[in-house]
Design a protein that fits this description.
single chain; 6 helices; 2 strands; mainly alpha; two-stranded parallel ribbon; 110 residues
Length: 110
């Protein structure tokens, strides 16, 4: 979450990883609502010692519904913004470019 308590917990995990000799690739900010009370991505990055923000997963109702159905959101609601961002993140971690399949009419009517 882009809230101070969550980022503080992430910083603790970051420090523990460093102590154990783990390479920190980056951080994922989850449940982003783009509300004024949320921390800015720049502040989160600074607090995590300039760690790359790999993804910003938006808070969406589809995620909550998929949890209730006990199905991964990427399978339950594959076109939701959260699913798209999770697939982008997976591609980034795997070193594979994520290309979204868009219907032909999306190229004509933007």
């Amino acid at each position: 979450n882009p809230e101070l308590t969550s980022v503080t917990d992430a910083l603790k995990a970051y420090k523990l990883g460093e102590q154990l000799g783990t390479k920190i690739t980056g951080a994922v900010v989850n449940r982003v609502k783009n509300k004024p009370h949320e921390m800015r991505m720049e502040d989160i990055k600074n607090m995590l010692e300039d760690t790359d923000i790999l993804a910003r997963i938006p808070e969406r109702i589809e995620v909550q519904k998929s949890i209730a159905r006990r199905k991964p959101v990427v399978l339950d609601s594959p076109k939701s913004p959260a699913s798209r961002e999770i697939r982008r993140l997976a591609g980034r971690i795997a070193g594979v470019e994520y290309k979204e399949n868009r219907p032909w009419y999306r190229f004509v009517f933007r």
